Amino acid sequence: MGPMGCGKTTVGKILSQRMRIKFIDSDDYHPPENIEKMARGIALNDRDRYPWLTRLKAIIDTALDEEKSIILACSALKKSYRKTLGVDQKRVITVYLKGDMALLEERVAARSHQYMNNSLLASQLATLEEPTDGITVSIAGTPEATAEAIVSHLNGVGACTPSTHE
Fold first, then answer.
1. Which pLDDT value is given to residue 111?
2. Low-confidence ranges of the chain (pLDDT < 70)
3. Which end of the chain has the lower number of beta carbons within 10 A, N or C?
4. CATH number, residue 65
């Protein structure tokens, strides 16, 4: 979890390959209305996000019911969003990819996204409620180093082991 530019998709894909766990990008589940707003540089509000979060919660619930691990890249900026997703730090763990504004701005400027308007970073940072639980990892290094730090944390708490579930 984290704001745009923190590496959720990049790091999530690295973790997926390394741990053999299915990767899901929450961006693929936004309704067309949300995509249109974000493309125009209009920040989503709680009402906009609720159906999207509910859809993601269903994906998480299915994985839990089937006893399959997944990696879900999702901004989950507010504590209430994480609660909606069912984050309990036992079966559903957050990994906060933390970076300072200058680094995030640099990364956002260097990429192109199918619909995320770069002007949305400021609103995402204003919305962000940094988690006080779960795992927090600096994004100052390479995506590979970030993924390695996450694996070390997960192995240290015994929360996750590699899976062959797809």
1. 65
2. 111-119, 157-166
3. C
4. 3.40.50.300
Q: DSSP readout, 39-76?
A: HTTPPP-HHHHHHHHHHHHHHHHHHHHTT--EEEE---
What's the confidence (pLDDT) of residue 160?
A: 44
CA 151 to chain centre: 16
- What b/e string do you get for 60-78 counting C-beta neighbours within 10 Å, with b at 16 or more? beebeeeeebbbbbbbbbb
Structurally, the chain folds into a number of domains equal to 1
Check residue 122 and give its pLDDT: 86
- Convert 82-93 into a string of H (helix), E (strand) and C (coil): HHHCCCCCCCCC
Q: How many whole angstroms separate alpha carbon 56 and alpha carbon 70?
A: 12
> In terms of C-beta density within 10 A (0-12 exposed, 13-18 middle, 19 or more buried), how is residue 158 classed?
exposed
Supply the pTM of this predicted model: 0.86
Question: What's the pLDDT tens digit per position in 128-156?
Answer: 999 999 999 999 999 999 999 999 999 88
Domain housing 78: 8-156
- Please answer whether residues 38 and 116 qualify as being in contact, where contact means their C-beta atoms are separated by less than 8 angstroms: yes
